[in-house]
Write a structure and sequence with these properties.
With about 350 residues, this protein is α/β, with parallel strands linked by helices. Helix content is about 40%, strand content about 15%. The chain contains 14 helices and twelve strands. An eight-stranded parallel β-sheet has the order 2-1-12-9-8-7-4-3. It has a four-stranded antiparallel β-sheet with strand order 5-6-11-10. Helix 4 packs parallel to helix 9. The longest helix has 21 residues. The radius of gyration is 19 Å and the shape is globular.
């Protein structure tokens, strides 16, 4: 299992690579240039500097998460072609540095959405929590305040410069439906996939998190039909998915074991985590341990093992345990425990 660990860069993460190196079985670092705004070109020199630093600890730097897609591309407005050209240049530059996979998403305005970033669990730890009724009744500005006040660290998808334009962005998306967004995603993919293929890079779209509409905005990466349609857009080997059990699995209608059996072959990158889903539509992130949540991670890893999955895997969001002060969902301790659990499941199935 090609285990990786997401890291936010020097001076931008409570976790140090010296610490990650002590997690057995961890082969690579999932990284990004988080200071780059969406739409900007990632220059060769800054890419190589980050790659060299990661490799100096003995890790590979094969996976980037994420090269954010500019809102103009999602909106399909007159500025999108220039931003697509910038994206293609970034792809070429990353390919030259040896990057193999780019994770990205196509969610309008908001990335991942939670109503509480430090919600208590019965064991005394805290975790990211989604309260459905609050989202349905809350003004987006209130949610932005909640997220912004929860951490001093950068939170991808919640960049202050984008959140400052929230009213303008909602106005721009007014009237857009799922078919419009699918059209804009298709336009984007047909433009960039030849460049990705020539650069030796697989694009891996991340599911919407959560996988349903929020604040009336369209969302299209929500279930099996979404993945079927994405694959139908292009048969390019560079057109892939990020198999995220926690995001797609937040909807109990998405059977992640069944989806793994069908779509792991289309996924160069997997996020494996667990969530506890409640009957009212709320969910909270838990430990990776299968019995703690609603996702059959044991079954998912068993299926990946049957297919001898060669993609990159990382533990996804972890709880905040043992008084660790860290970026919400991205501490050291619980993700390290997650890695050991995933490796244990993998080894058990590999030896059967």
């Amino acid at each position: 299992m090609n285990i990786t660990f997401r890291w936010y860069g020097q001076g931008n993460d409570s976790v140090q690579l010296e610490q990650v190196k002590q997690i057995p079985g961890t082969k690579g670092i999932v990284w990004a240039l988080h200071h780059k705004p969406a739409g900007a070109v990632w220059e060769k020199e800054e890419i190589q500097s980050e790659v060299d630093y990661i490799k100096s600890f003995g890790f590979h730097a094969d996976v980037v998460e994420s090269v954010n897609v500019h809102e103009s591309i999602k909106l399909g407005n007159e500025e999108r072609d220039q931003y697509i050209e910038n994206y293609k240049e970034t792809i070429r530059n990353l390919g030259e540095a040896g990057v193999k996979v780019i994770c990205y998403n196509f969610m309008p305005i908001f990335d991942w959405t939670r109503t509480s970033l430090y919600h208590p669990l019965p064991d005394g730890s805290t975790a990211l929590f989604f309260e459905k009724e609050k989202i349905e009744s809350q003004d987006p500005a209130e949610l932005i305040k909640t997220v912004a006040s929860a951490s001093d660290m950068t939170l991808p998808g919640w960049e202050p410069e984008k959140m400052a334009r929230i009213e303008e962005l909602f106005e721009a998306y007014k009237g857009m439906d799922e078919e419009d967004l699918w059209g804009n995603l298709t336009y984007f993919l047909k433009a960039i996939l030849p460049t990705a293929e020539a650069s030796g890079i697989q694009m891996a779209i991340h599911p919407d998190d959560p996988p349903w509409s929020i604040f009336g905005l369209p969302r299209i990466m929500t279930g099996e039909k979404s993945w079927e349609r994405l694959i139908a857009v292009s048969d390019s080997p560079s057109n892939g998915i990020t198999f995220c059990t926690g995001s797609m699995g937040a909807n109990p209608e998405n059977d992640m074991v069944d989806l793994a059996s069908k779509y792991a072959k289309h996924s160069p990158f997997a996020h494996l985590r667990n969530v506890k889903i409640f009957e009212n539509g709320d969910f909270i992130e838990t430990s990776h341990y299968t019995q703690d949540g609603s996702i059959d991670l044991t079954g998912v890893v068993s299926e990946l093992s049957k297919q001898d999955y060669k993609g990159y895997v990382r533990p996804d969001h972890g709880r905040h345990i043992w008084s660790e002060e860290c970026r919400p969902g991205y501490g050291l301790y619980d993700r390290a425990l997650g890695i050991m659990y995933l490796l244990g499941l993998w080894d058990a199935h590999q030896t059967k």
